[in-house]
Amino acid sequence: MSYDDENIFAKILRGEIPCKKIYEDDYVLSFHDINPQKKIHALVIPKGKFIDLDDFSINASSEEIVGLLKGINIVAKKLGISVDTGKGYRALVNINEHGGQEVPHLHFHLFGGERVGRMVE
Ligand code: AMP
User: Fewer CB in 10 Å around end: N or C, the chain?
Assistant: First the structure.
C-alpha cells in the first residue's frame, strides 16, 4: 500500500483542514481528537508521510524516530498528563485492519485526564 496524500491528517498537515493544535515542531504535529474518548484525547503525528507504525519503524530516519518520541513527551507535559506534570496517560497506536486504524497516517493517541480503564475492549 502506498501513502494516500488525500488522507485527513495529510490535509491537516498541509493546512487545508483546521485542527485544534497543541504543539508543532520540525518532526511532529499534535492536536485534539475531533471525537474525544476521554477527558483528554490528543493525537501526535509525524510530519513525514508514514502510513502506520510498521512503515515508520522500517522507513523513518533516526532523527524522525527520536523526534516523534520526544514530541509525545512534550505534548504530555503540555497537557499536564506526563509523569512529572500529572498522573500519567495511555499512548495507543492502531495499526491496519485488525488494529482498527481508520486514518492511514501514523498517529499516536494520548488518553488522560482521568483513569483510562481497561486496556482492550
Ligand atoms: P484511528 O482509528 O486510530 O485511525 O483513529 C483516527 C482518529 O482520528 C479518531 O479518533 C478520530 O476521531 C480522529 N479524527 C478524524 N478526523 C479528525 C480531524 N479532522 N481532527 C481531529 N481528529 C480527527
Answer: C
